[in-house]
Amino acid sequence: MTGILASDEIIGGRYKVERYLAEGGMQLVYVARDQITDRLVALKTPKNKSAEKRFHRSAVVSAKVNHPNVAKTLDYLNCNGRQFLIEELIEGQDMRAALLEDSSFLDPYLAAKVFHHIAKGVAAAHHAGVIHRDLKPTNIMIVGDYSILELKVTDFGIAKMAQEELLEAVEGGDASLTTSQTAVGALPYMAPEAIDTPREVGAPADIWSVGAMMYHLLAGQYPFGQGLRAVPKIVAAQLPTPPLFLTANPQFAPLASELIDLAFKCMSKNPKERPTADELVIKCSELCYTSTLRHRGKVGDFVFNAFGHINSEAGRVFYHRECVYGELPKIGEDVLFASYDGGGSPRALPVIKLGILP
Predict the structure, then answer these.
(1) What CA–CA distances, in Å, run from 257 to 84, 207, 234, 267, 286?
(2) pLDDT, average across residues 260-277
């Protein structure tokens, strides 16, 4: 591993390191201050010699994409033989931490919003001739918790480096697929061709990954499982049977069905049968979904097995059991909800019980 950067270290005479932020399979990430613009930025540097070989090429690739749903590349430096990539700092969490820690699934309205924004980011990249190759929840950044004030696809350049590790993992056999950190994270969302013919992966593989992520967000489970048991199912494109709760409530069933159908189209075995990123954006724009801010609260009461109130920082909110998506919460349990003016008490729709984890 390359040397750890110290706080207050200045890179390229411009970027002052403030703190360590995180690390991935290929890079270390720091928060730094641009001393010219007085702006906080993300400073990324390869974590080992293997990553160093491809870092400059990856910087060039990622700089090609400019879109609100893609993290912006701002600068590239080579200082004293060490390489650095400067990106906009996203003050949020990756999608797994933001959306899959407190509940294993999202309601269809929120999932549609996520689907739409990811599709727009991927479409912008494909227009620039850039394929991600490593789309997964940890490469999607979320600002604003469940309200999703911003969503940005990250690491287009780093994913190009990750492709080499994925190639080695796939071509190296089963052991490599389970020991490579990059491969383990990517496998549940990998397209069949990424396993069968990894050197021929194109834009449709990104579409497959988007569909796999969306199924995961909707169903609360990986479409094909994890680890080596997932490999034959992925290769065969053996689509799962969606859980019953997705369509159990008539109020949510139409949108949930549309989203699952769209996710399944993205996961067509034949890459030519998958929608393009542009087609996916159009289909998502035709979905009828709300983008209301979300709040957290606790169920305060529930009477006549029909309705109750949620206590939250936003106040006391009325809800009916038919507005609940998934399992009905009990008194005192945490919930996530959107609130609307009900002509008296505000009303919650949808309501999701938090803490439903695998």
Answers:
(1) 45, 19, 22, 15, 14
(2) 98
Q: Beta strand pairing status for 82-88 and 93-94?
A: unpaired
Residue type, position 81, single letter = G
Give the Cα separation of 123 and 358 in Å (integer): 32
Do 338 and 318 meet the contact criterion of CB atoms below 8 Å apart? no
**For 130-173, where are the alpha helices, taking DSSP H only?**
156-172
pLDDT in the model for residue 291: 86
**How far apart (Å, rounded) are the C-alpha atoms in residues 299 and 102?**
16
- CA dist., res. 342 & res. 35, Å (int): 50
- Residue 301's φ and ψ, nearest 5 degrees, are -155, 165
C-alpha span between 255 and 252 (Å, rounded) = 6
The rounded mean pLDDT for the chain is: 89
Locate 286 and state its tokens.
């035709």
- Contacts with 250 (C-beta within 8 Å, 6 or more apart), sequence order: none
Q: Distance between CA 357 and CA 28 in Å, rounded?
A: 30
C-alpha dihedral, 150 to 151 to 157 to 162, nearest 10°: 140
Confidence of residue 277 (pLDDT cuts 50, 70, 90): very high
Which domains are delineated in the chain? 10-88 (3.30.200.20), 93-285 (1.10.510.10), 294-353 (2.40.50.140)
**Residue 213 Ramachandran class (φ > 0 left, ψ -120 to 50 alpha, else beta):** alpha
**Which range (23-32, 100-109, 179-188, 299-308) has the least confidence?**
179-188
Report the length, in residues, of the chain: 358
Known catalytic residues?
134
Task: Tokens for 235, please give them.
Answer: 């290769």
